[in-house]
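Narrative of activities, Objective 1.

The group set out to show that a structural description can be obtained from nothing but a protein's sequence at a throughput compatible with the screening campaign. Below is one input-output pair from the validation batch, recorded exactly as produced.
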Amino acid sequence: MDYPEIAKPSLDQMAVRPNLNYVRDASPDFDWTQIERELGVRDDADLNQAFLCIDRHAASSRRDKVALFWEGKNGDTERYTFGDLSTLTNKFANVLVSLGVKKGDRVFTFMPRIPELHVAVFGALKLGAVVGPLFADFGPDPVRDRLQDSGAKVLVTTPALRSRLETILDQLPDLVHVIVVDRTNEPVAHPKDVNYTELMAGASPRFSGVPLSANDYSIMHYTSGTTGKPKGGVHRHRAAIQQYATGKWVLDLHENDIYWCTADPGWVTGTSYGMFAPWTNGVSQIVFEGGFRASAWYGIIEKYKVTVWYTAPTAIRMLMKAGEQATKQSDLSSLRHICSVGEPLNPEAVMWGLKVFRQPIHDNWWQTETAAILIANYASMPVRPGSMGRPIPGIKAAILDDRYMELPPGKEGHLAIKPGWPSMFATYWNKPELYASCFKNGWYISGDRASRDADGYFWFVARADDVIKSAGHLIGPFEVESALLEHPAVAEAGVIGKPDPLAMEVVKAFVSLKDGYEPTPELRRELIQFVRGKLAAAMAPREIEFVTSLPKTRSGKIMRRLLKAKELGLPLGDTSTLEDY
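Output recorded for this entry:
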């Protein structure tokens, strides 16, 4: 079905939204020093994300402005001004100093969406530590793998999540301290444990700071791969420049906005656009600890009068499933701009937004490695439903063939970006060769396949590898396969993403059993629960199909593309290199 282009705002609307003027004629030659001057950054030797997000506001007329409205899953509410956050993050930086943490040490967080998570992240950044936020639904194995690989010195967590890690702590020789955030102030239970409340009570509210430059490491997010364990994408403090700019250009943030990003801080959207973009812009934001429920989400929008909302396509499709009637139970008239990210937003969802919210939902594209939005549907341009939009100022994007040469409009190929944007990742932790492999012929190769039309709009086609995009999460099949292979019944496992109308893809596993085990429904359920316990519910297979053997090359590599082709009824292609297939 063809969908009509949705017109851009009128000139009268543009006049009261000056952010939009930046992107009317976006140029890849944009001078980023314009943004540095807006932020008061004098040079690369003087840039700290924590200062830009919190302390500069605390030293200004925004000191008493609410930075964070927090609503707990049980209905508890708290609010923190920029002045409050400045003091709390100073105290936490001093806590880390007292524990022997130095610039460059890795500090990881493993917490639900509670205010202490934000305090820990920005306090560690003030000290110059490299912060690694982890998804609170992870099982013990993903946490262990990431802490081992990074050599994390400190983990900040809660009692409930701490108990999940009991079996792995002894496998983490670099981990010196586990800071337990316990609002009931129970005594700690392990030799590595220290109590957050006690440490904060004795910490000074003044922190002199550590000299940091734009090129110092700040955040580390792990991203899934197809043939190995997740790799740590490391970012620099310089990323704040682009996160601030895209907060203005794409999210259209203004001084009096109330902003809500629904992403978990364990994923890059939850830090880049749940922390850095809104707070570099001095905007008040909502953090909701509770899970998804249409009535609860609409209730948050009504209660706090949310004006700008950033969410995921899967969530939008779930809201669509809840029906139009659900939108009429709450007053959603405060919403003036809605954006989406994490996976392609289908055209039907864009049009649904136009119908029920009286505005389109604006899709955009970026990755863990890019740390900020690169291609977007701006409020200042016509929206073409199904398109990821156009490049932001300062970004040159192209479609390349298999020799990494540019293709003309209308051709499908590799989506690539010219390196040098401010938020570009610095490396994969301890994997310089893997990092170098991301760049070909002077381009960063994204791993996505796309096309570009004659007007410069980009259109997503597919992932170029086997990584599964499910409900906004990137899931590496290798991790799921490895977890399955730990079960005593499993001889071989191959994992693919199966198309799904809500989540885009769900995990499906093909499992070959060892002798002595029978493929029963009970074993299927047991395997799903087994993986959930080791990884996370979102990463566990939704379906398991038992097979006698898996297609492999003669070198023993499982051919996931053939599993997927058979699942979808597609041609198998060349099978000459396969073993007895």
